[in-house]
Each structure stands twice: as structure tokens, then as C-alpha cells.
Design goal:
Helix content is about 15%, strand content about 35%. By secondary structure, it is an alpha+beta fold. The protein has two domains: about 40 residues; about 150 residues, Glucose Permease (Domain IIA) (Distorted Sandwich). The strands form three sheets. An eight-stranded antiparallel sheet has the order 9-5-6-7-11-3-2-13, with no helix packed on it. It is elongated.
Length: about 220
Amino acid sequence: MVRDGLYYGAAMTAVGVLVSYLIQPWYGLPLFILAAFCLYFFRDPERQIPPGPVAVSPADGKVVAVRPEGASGQRVSIFLNIFDVHVNRAPIGGTVTRVQYQKGRFLVASKELASIANEQNTVVVEGNGTRVVFKQIAGLIARRIVCTKKTGDTVAAGERVGLIKFGSRVDVVFGPEWDILVREGMHVAAGSSILARRNDVESVPDASEHCSTLEPVACRG
């Protein structure tokens, strides 16, 4: 579990106990429910990271867009609702070459405009002859983006790199050396679902062959 969940849960519980004591026991019930939800929201399950020249999903959620980006790139956008795990992971292993925060709006994260207009944090990872850009994007409810990595840090594929509190979006931008393996409407899991595979290095089994080793949410269409 992410440490923030313990802080929020403890605070809600303390206020619930105080309200129950000063007013009526059942008045504190909504706060106890919120405390339980905070513990659930900030869960951080272990994931099995698939091997090979692949890029894993940096976030849990639903793929809401697979679209061209720039001259020859492709973007995969993932929407996280409040019931998804919000811990973000590195899509590939390598060196963090850029971390850039940008102020912005708080539009509904499932909307296409959110990729441009919303508050976001851009992280670029380079390694093994490729670079992948992913953006932590705040949503309507999310008001804080957390990134635990800085420029120059080395990360492994699937390594934890931060989180976005409550509903949000993550965009991943791939170059032409990547073949996208997901489509709109699929549900993916951070660290274990394969988003793309290198087409300029030795091939690995198709993502569907990994479904037996992934969590069920990673392979739902």
C-alpha cells in the first residue's frame, strides 16, 4: 500500500471517532467508509513484469485512444477511474532523460482535450536504442501528481515511478520502432500488460500469449 493511504485512512478514522463521540455513533459512519475507501484506493499490488523488447502499461485503466502522434509516432491513452490502482510504473527500462511539469486545467480525464489542456507531468525514458514518453495527467478530481523520479535516474521496466491521486489519465507516446498491441476499450494493468513491442529487434511472443501469466484485468477486451 502507498503510504498516503495510511495517512488519509488514519485521519478519516480519527475524525469519525471524534464525531461519533461528540454527536451520535452513526454520524461517524460516512467517515469510516471514506477511511476504508482510502485504504482501497491507495493499494499497490505486486505485478509480474513480462520480459523481452516490450513496453508495459504505466497505469491501470481503460484504453480510451490509440492515435497517431506527430510525424511518425503513436499515442496510447489510458483513463483511470477512482476504482483503479493509481500507482504508475515505467513502460520500459532505461534512463530518465526528462521530467517536466506543466500547469493546466482539470477537465474530465477521459476526454481527448485532457491530453493537451490538463495539468500534467511528462517523463521521458531512453534505453536500448529507443525512447518512450509518458504523461501523468490530472483529471476532474485528481489535484496532485506525484513523480518519484528525476532526470538522470535509471529505471527498470515496470518499476514504480509515482502516482496520480484519484481519477486521472496517462498518455504513452511511441516512435515508429514500436508496434502497438492494444486497442481502444481494452483494460490494462500497470507493469504487467504489454502495450507495444519493438519491431526493430528480435521478436518475442505476442502479448496474447502472456495472458495466462497476467492478472485477469490485463487481458480483458
